[in-house]
Amino acid sequence: MKVTVFGVGYVGLVQAAVLADFGHDVVCVDVDSDKINDLKNGIIPIYEPGLTSIVERNYGEGRLGFTTDAVEGVRHAEIQFIAVGTPPDEDGAADLKYVLAVASTIATHMTSKKIIVDKSTVPVGTADKVLSQVSEVLATRGEAIEHYVVSNPEFLKEGAAVNDCMRPDRIIIGTASEYVKAQMRELYAPCNRNHDRMIFMDVRSAELTKYAANCMLATKISFMNEISRLAEYLGADIENVRRGIGSDERIGYHFIYAGCGYGGSCFPKDVQALVHTANSINYDAQLLKSVEAVNYRQKEVLFDRISRYFAGDLSGKTIALWGLSFKPKTDDMREATSRVLMESLWEQGAKVRAYDPEAMEETQRIYGCREDLELVGTKESALQGADALVICTEWKAFWAPDFDQIKGALRQPVIFDGRNLYDPQQVERHGLAYYGIGRGRSV
Ligand code: UGA
Hints:
Elements: E1 2-6, H1 10-21, E2 25-29, H2 33-40, H3 51-60, E3 64-67, H4 70-76, E4 79-82, H5 97-109, E5 114-118, H6 126-141, E6 147-151, H7 161-166, E7 171-174, H8 178-187, E8 198-201, H9 203-234, H10 238-246, H11 267-280, H12 286-298, H13 301-309, E9 318-322, H14 337-347, E10 351-355, H15 360-367, E11 373-375, H16 379-383, E12 388-391, H17 403-409, E13 414-417, H18 424-429, E14 433-435
Helix pairs in contact: 1-3, 5-6, 9-11, 9-12, 11-12
The structure holds uridine-5'-diphosphate-glucuronic acid.
Uridine-5'-diphosphate-glucuronic acid binds next to helix 9.
């Protein structure tokens, strides 16, 4: 089948590459000519395991094309994906200007039937807005061309995006049209060979499903983070509690890891956007507001702890920091807890010496060169002469460090672990003080 994808961001690029890999003929359109040129030259704008090879292969074999020419994109296919960004505006609502601009472009240039697929995470009611936009433009053109708008939210995780997209748990399709259902079934046929993953529903339910999924996951995390605070004051260990409750199938082991707060481009934005949607219909979304508030507070835990440990005097201290990205296997720093921590440390006159396997370039891009930030090439070199070690991201490279070496290198033998990577007793046997999240003790 022929497919056009508008937007070569995370979602659009991965989706396009995977659809091409399934054998479809895919054209990607983006307004950013630098990005499009880079992609044509095999330069992938994001770090995502497996993405480079699948883009290169499909581009090389002619199933995946890149262009800035929207007219070419519209003409290419009946199926038109919208996968452009929906950044939060000032009050937390998802900004739809890019989505609606693509809808207008499609409507302006279409000369034959189109199925417009909303892939971006968009508030409930967006498909209706896209539909009216398209209908309006067609009306001003004096044309009546058959068109449909369908919601098909994406559920991929950064760091596992290619695999998630190739082997999705479910494919949500929001449409009332039997024709569209059949087309979507054909498009996604390779995902359904062993097991039917298609779930059809009305368009508004599909849109809400996306927010509900992310908000449920964010809720699980904030819940565990809240219990972890209680554990600290009550002398319990959240890791034991996690194993204890996860064994109940109704709760499950996934997404119940306490830590230094959730980040990324999705959870913070989507929780805020759903709160905003609730406000707009005069519903007080108390639980969602609390999920956000707990996370906000949790991102400050590491700094509070370090500050208390040094009796509020951080001036001139050097803090070794392991892990900058919001989670492992990505260079994405959006809403990363490391940023909240570094900014607080700098404000108090401390220096940060940081190492991350992938996100150092991105950190440099965000913060530029500054005297109180040193980015170093290995996790060991971050330690030398530092006053403490703090861990923000659970990269595998940090799972089994040489604790004696850490103790020897640090000026103060102390680890603040925002991801509960170690057994506290084991660390303490090496003569290091250890503060995890919810591990029965606090500073
Ligand atoms: C999230 C969802 O997991 C995807 O299903 C969804 O498609 C995506 O958002 C999206 O809307 O596009 P992602 O943002 O890539 O994916 O990251 P996650 O793996 O969900 O992690 C989010 C944050 O939660 C990270 O900061 C992670 O460290 C934190 N987390 C996760 C915890 O603190 N505890 C956990 O138990 C799990």
